[in-house]
Amino acid sequence: MSFRHVFIILAIISPVMVSAKDFIVGDEKGWTLSFDYQAWAQGKDFRVGDRLVFKYPVGVHNVFKVNGTGFQNCIKPPLSEALTSGNDTIVLATPGRKWYICGVGRHCAAASMKLFINVNADSPAPTMTPSPSPSPSQSMPYANSAYGSIRNVLHPAMVVLVALVSIFGA
Ligand SMILES: *[C@@H]1O[C@H](CO)[C@@H](O)[C@H](O)[C@H]1NC(C)=O
Ligand SMILES: *[C@@H]1O[C@H](CO)[C@@H](O)[C@H](O)[C@H]1NC(C)=O
Ligand SMILES: [Cu+2]
């Protein structure tokens, strides 16, 4: 009946409580000129299934997904590939490095309007698809069936009860 027990229980249930996050690029500044997007990305845990939202006044900026070379040299892809809604939402569908630039004027080259992130795998259930409100009782495919069955049986109320029992040492 120690913190170790509580920790183990939390380790088992925590994946159930994890859900996809929206990251507003630049937070309240949005997608804009002369903002340090590398500093903004620093320390953030981007996961598969999360979303990036680029916010800016329509027509002033745009968003291109590029590769590392395009990022480095501010190479604009064809205009047809631009996102232009001013509220561009990109689902981070795969792990790995992702690069985005603004393709308007010299915003990328002259005003560092570029973002580089690394997306981490959504462990420990890589097959889990993003859903609006994952229910703990809902059956989902897990690689490890024993682990999966434990999680599927857990009900939020039970989780609280088990945690309380552990803390107060019944
Ligand atoms: C990067 O993208 C450009 C097109 O924007 C392409 O020509 C180039 O081959 C790509 N480089 C790599 C390493 O994939
Ligand atoms: C912007 O996009 C997000 C995510 O797609 C959406 O939830 C939100 O309602 C949109 N906001 C506006 C102002 O369109
Ligand atoms: Cu721009």
Short description:
Keywords: Copper, Disulfide bond, Electron transport, Glycoprotein, Membrane, Metal-binding, Signal, Transmembrane, Transmembrane helix, Transport. Helix content is 31%, strand content 18%. By secondary structure, it is of the alpha/beta class.
Total domains:
2
Shape: globular
Rg, Å, rounded: 21 Å
Low-confidence stretches: 6-13, 133-165
**Helix and strand sequence:** HEHEEEHEEHEHH
List of distinct ligands in this structure: 2-acetamido-2-deoxy-beta-D-glucopyranose, copper (II) ion
Number of helical stretches of at least 4 residues: 6
The average pLDDT score comes to: 77
The residue fraction in helices comes out at 25-40%
Quick one: CATH class of the largest domain? Mainly Beta
Major sheet: size, sense and barrel closure? 4 strands, mixed
From the N-terminal CA to the C-terminal CA, the straight-line distance is 8 Å
* CATH A-level architecture of the largest domain: Sandwich
Look at the helices and sheets and give the structural class: alpha/beta
CATH homologous superfamily classification of the largest domain: Cupredoxins -  blue copper proteins
Strand content: 15-25%
The counted number of beta strands is 7
Membrane topology: Single-pass type I membrane protein
InterPro entries: Cupredoxin (IPR008972), Phytocyanin-like (IPR039391), Phytocyanin_dom (IPR003245)
GO molecular function: electron transfer activity; metal ion binding
Protein name: Phytocyanin domain-containing protein
